[in-house]
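Inverse folding, one chain.
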């Protein structure tokens, strides 16, 4: 069955080869073999008893049988697994001690299965007090050294591909009678976040009873079932959302379309698609070229006709169980044809079923077109594998993610990513310059279905060191190994896409240099396990398989580190964020030197009157839990309200009150904001977006720009007409009376309608104010005067209030005329007339 699924939203995997090591006799028996071959000729006859479980194929390769080979002369004294995970990076150590109780020599096999993607970093073995220590060399160098030892009859080895989902490390050694042998294997891997969880898999396989079995980690046991593609496809179709568009192309020697156009994922269309899939029957031929080009045409046509949302992500999923045999069959030509027709906003994902497909080809063509390849193991839970793939890509959250560091960070791993899916994660590593920055700054830009985002993350670089110093079990300098792990994987992917032999050699040289420094076994390095005193040597190496893909670094969506395809390679100069996303220090309408209207502290109002060039102040004293309307403009559809919180306890017989939450509602935009001292929440209909005070960020949504300055302020700019600034006041957590609170600032130039009202809104249209009869009051520093405003004649006092835009500790003094009695005579009515029931309520004002 061969299928192409076309979807107008989103869809990312690797096959790192396993290897097997068999070490020959180290005493009297000297096996003879050829390096790189898969045969061993034993010397004098010995009783070989292997305590591992083997899988043997029948002559017709159609049936697998399992046998346990356990010998009573061999005792496993201990089998220990210790795994230390430091910030997702795991180092696992497998160690075992075996005793030969018999008087005659016995062959013992040390067999460990490690996850694909894990790198072996060290191996030691002690036989009869002779210790063999591993060191990593370039593959050809290691094989030459190994051959020299082999010629002397001191060691023999074999390389062999093993399991599908795990890599098998195997070392076989002859143990003299009454002797002991111990093995210790170190491997390192980056645990990947998949569907919101991290999973570490450790296979325990001692093969016999163990006196001491210790495991310090989490173990997952796998089970197998035999389901197939139709069931998986039906499940995937059922999970499509109404806003998704899709079609299906069935290809063998011919191309057949379920529908020649993208259609919405309605219940009727999904049901019809399921019936179509059930009727597909396997037949001869595989016309990959025409199928993929047809899929590209359908998506391109839909985009040109304006049927696709410009922010949607289009992709093609190709499912095939064989190589091309019909039409264009030359792989390089297919690759070129697809590259020429593919649009920049389309991704191609290739799922190869079984081992009859050229996985290298699928990997190359996917990586070139913003996708990845994944092998589906036929008849081994294939249905589940397909459904798992879909679940990982079913919820795209971001696209075009770029992560920018300054010049104080070098050798950054992949920092541009085409897509980010729910439940996955993005990991970037780099090297700090000699002069460590404090803090380390990172700028992240991305786009979602509705928003353009920019986050600035400031991280104190010494904080992690302090945390790790307090931990008993951590990997020393784990970040260096993590960087090497990521870089090698990404270079392996670049190697797959290399267009020339020179490019491939250059990339290989870079991989080799890193692997040698960090002592990791890769497809271009091998581990030499040797004893300096005896000159005995063992060889650990990764094999090359043309069908499985040599040297892959391809990622698994949500599980493996994303690779660097040609369209996402890091530039060697420090990238800069897009100019339109660079935030000015302060918006010009609420800049430090611009007089504004504000509400601060207990709530103190400062109303700026630009025509008379005066500032008028008043206080109100509402009860905690009450909501005050600040701005209400029913014509423009804007309501701004503040919810009151109280201090922890009374101070001088009075309980201070503050704004703990500010709500802004824009009816015409179907948009609302809820800002409190912990987070900023944006709600667009049923959709919610959270921003946090702990991170600097910018979000652009429907013409509204939300700019967060870390733990300082948030600016909300609505088109060219309006701007609002909310300040965050943090207090000492253990302060006996004070609490965190918010301040609100608005430009008097905000373009409201003539119907605007509210405690602040009513002054957008400035009233006529006349201040006269200025004279000395009871306090010589606070003169008094008479003010005429709105038909009232009231006594006012000259005083100072604070504008905290320059700093929330000391602020800036603002001279104003203070109106007593909660602004009576200056505001319309009483301040209690401005109480509203909800955070987004409009003021009921005639």
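Residues assigned per position:
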């Amino acid at each position: 069955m061969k299928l192409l699924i076309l979807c107008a939203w989103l869809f990312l995997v690797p096959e790192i080869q396993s290897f097997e090591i068999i070490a020959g006799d180290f005493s009297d028996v000297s096996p003879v073999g050829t390096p790189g071959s898969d045969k061993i000729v034993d010397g004098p006859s010995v009783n070989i008893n292997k305590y591992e479980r083997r899988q043997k194929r029948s002559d017709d390769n159609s049936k697998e049988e399992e046998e346990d080979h356990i010998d009573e002369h061999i005792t496993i004294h201990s089998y220990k697994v210790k795994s230390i995970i430091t910030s997702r990076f795991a180092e696992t150590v497998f160690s075992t001690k075996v005793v030969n109780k018999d008087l005659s020599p016995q062959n013992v096999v040390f067999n460990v299965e490690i996850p694909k993607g894990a790198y072996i970093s060290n191996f030691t073995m002690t036989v009869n007090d002779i210790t063999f220590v591993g060191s990593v060399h370039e593959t050809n160098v290691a094989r030459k050294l190994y051959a020299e030892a082999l010629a002397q009859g001191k060691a023999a080895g074999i390389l062999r591909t093993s399991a599908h989902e795990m890599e098998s490390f195997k070392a076989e050694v002859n143990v003299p009678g009454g002797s002991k042998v111990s093995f210790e294997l170190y491997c390192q891997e980056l645990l990947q976040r998949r569907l919101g969880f991290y999973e570490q898999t450790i296979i325990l396989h001692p093969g016999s009873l163990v006196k001491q079995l210790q495991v310090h980690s989490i173990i997952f046991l796998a089970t197998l079932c035999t389901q197939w593609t139709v069931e998986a496809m039906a499940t995937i179709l059922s999970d499509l959302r109404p806003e998704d568009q899709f079609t299906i192309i069935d290809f063998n020697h011919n191309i057949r379309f379920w529908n020649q156009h993208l259609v919405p994922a309605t219940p009727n269309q999904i049901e019809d698609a399921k019936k179509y899939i059930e009727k597909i029957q396997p037949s001869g031929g595989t016309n990959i070229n025409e199928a993929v080009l047809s899929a590209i045409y359908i998506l391109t046509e839909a985009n040109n006709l304006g049927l696709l949302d410009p922010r949607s992500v289009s992709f093609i999923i190709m499912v095939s169980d064989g190589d091309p045999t019909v039409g264009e069959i030359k792989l390089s030509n297919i690759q070129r044809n697809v590259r020429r027709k593919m649009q920049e906003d389309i991704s191609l994902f290739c799922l190869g079923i079984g081992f009859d497909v050229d996985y290298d080809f699928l990997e190359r063509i996917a990586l070139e077109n913003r996708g990845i390849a994944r092998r589906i193991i036929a008849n081994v839970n294939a249905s589940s594998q397909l459904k798992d793939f879909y679940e990982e890509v079913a919820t795209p959250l971001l696209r075009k993610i770029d992560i920018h560091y300054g010049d104080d960070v070098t050798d950054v791993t992949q920092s541009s990513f085409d897509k980010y899916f729910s439940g996955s994660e993005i990991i970037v590593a780099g090297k700090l310059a000699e002069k460590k920055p404090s803090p380390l700054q990172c700028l992240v830009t991305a786009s979602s279905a509705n928003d353009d985002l920019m986050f600035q993350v400031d991280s104190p670089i010494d904080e992690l060191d302090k945390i790790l110093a307090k931990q008993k079990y951590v990997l020393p300098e784990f970040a260096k190994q993590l960087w090497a792990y990521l870089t090698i994987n990404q270079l392996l992917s670049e190697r797959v896409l290399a267009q020339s032999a020179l490019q491939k050699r250059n990339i290989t040289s870079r991989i080799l240099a890193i692997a040698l420094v960090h002592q990791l076994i890769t497809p271009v390095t091998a581990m030499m396990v040797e004893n300096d005193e005896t000159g005995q040597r063992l060889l650990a190496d990764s094999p090359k398989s043309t069908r499985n893909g040599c040297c892959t670094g391809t990622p698994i969506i949500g599980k493996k580190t994303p690779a660097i395809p040609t369209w996402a390679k890091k530039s060697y100069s420090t990238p800069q964020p897009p100019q339109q996303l660079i935030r000015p220090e302060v918006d010009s309408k609420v800049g430090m030197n611009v007089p504004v209207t504000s509400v601060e502290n207990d709530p103190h109002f400062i109303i700026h009157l630009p025509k008379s060039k005066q500032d008028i102040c008043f206080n109100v004293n509402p009860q905690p839990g009450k909501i005050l309307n600040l701005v209400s403009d029913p014509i423009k559809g804007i309501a701004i309200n503040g919810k009151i919180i109280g201090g922890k306890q009374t101070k001088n017989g009075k309980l201070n009150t503050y704004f703990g939450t500010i709500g802004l509602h824009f009816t015409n935009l179907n948009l609302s904001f809820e800002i409190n001292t912990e987070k900023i929440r944006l709600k667009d209909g049923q959709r919610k977006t959270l921003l946090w005070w702990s991170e600097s960020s910018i979000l652009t949504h429907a013409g509204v720009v939300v700019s967060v300055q870390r733990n300082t302020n948030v600016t909300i700019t609505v088109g060219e007409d309006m701007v609002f600034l909310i300040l965050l006041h943090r207090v000492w957590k253990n302060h006996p009376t004070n609490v965190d609170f918010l301040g609100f600032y608005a430009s008097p130039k905000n373009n409201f309608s003539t119907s605007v009202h509210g405690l602040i809104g009513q002054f957008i249209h400035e009233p006529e104010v006349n201040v006269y009869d200025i004279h000395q009051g009871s306090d010589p520093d606070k003169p008094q005067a008479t003010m005429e405003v709105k038909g009232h004649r009231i006594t006012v006092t000259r005083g100072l209030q604070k504008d905290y835009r320059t700093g929330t500790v000391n602020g800036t003094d603002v001279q104003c005329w203070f109106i007593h009695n909660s602004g009576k005579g200056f505001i319309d009515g009483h301040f209690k007339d401005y109480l509203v029931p909800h955070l987004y309520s409009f003021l009921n004002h005639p």
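The two ends are 70 Å apart (CA to CA). Residues 729 and 808 are 6 Å apart (CA to CA).
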